[in-house]
Amino acid sequence: MRCDRKKAALSVALTWMMVALLQAGCGQHDWQARTFPTRGTITINGEPPEQAFIKLIKLGEPIDERESDCWALVQADGTYEFSTYENGDGCPPGEYAWILRWPANLMTMMPDRLGEKYWNQDDPYMTVTIVRGQNELPVVDLTGVAVKPLSKPASKVEHR
What we know:
The protein has one helix at 2-22, and strands at residues 38-44, 53-58, 70-73, 79-81, 94-101, 103-105, 110-112, 126-130, 135-136, 140-142. The protein is of the alpha+beta class. The radius of gyration is 17 Å and the shape is globular. The strands form 3 sheets. Strands 1, 4, 9 and 10 form a 4-stranded mixed beta sheet that branches. Strands 3-2-5-8 form a 4-stranded antiparallel beta sheet, with no helix packed on it. A hairpin with a 4-residue loop joins strand 6 (103-105) and strand 7 (110-112). Helices cover 13% and strands 28% of the residues. The model is unreliable at 21-26 (pLDDT under 50).
């Protein structure tokens, strides 16, 4: 039952992420909050966690009437840049919970290679404050973290 709720929550998060991507280039709407560039850098056990998913969840009042979230995908060099409405547009000012998930499969967001350890908005890894202007978040350097390896695809068997 708990797994089904997690899958449903991830499905909703992915849906909102897709809506944000589809709106790229459409211009700001009346219900959207003003965003400011927000970026950071992360390593896990000394290596960049490429394709890890970071989400900022607004503490207190929601960002806007649609309760949007800010999210980012970690690049090969460990950098990430947040998006709210358009790719790379940043986040509105405010206080946020910073949570992290490193999915083995980006399409399903499952399983989390970090075992859900950093994906808890009630006990986030850190909280951050976004201000008007450029925002460079503190460097995150997680060490001694158990990371589940990616499973290898089954080898192809040729029949004669």
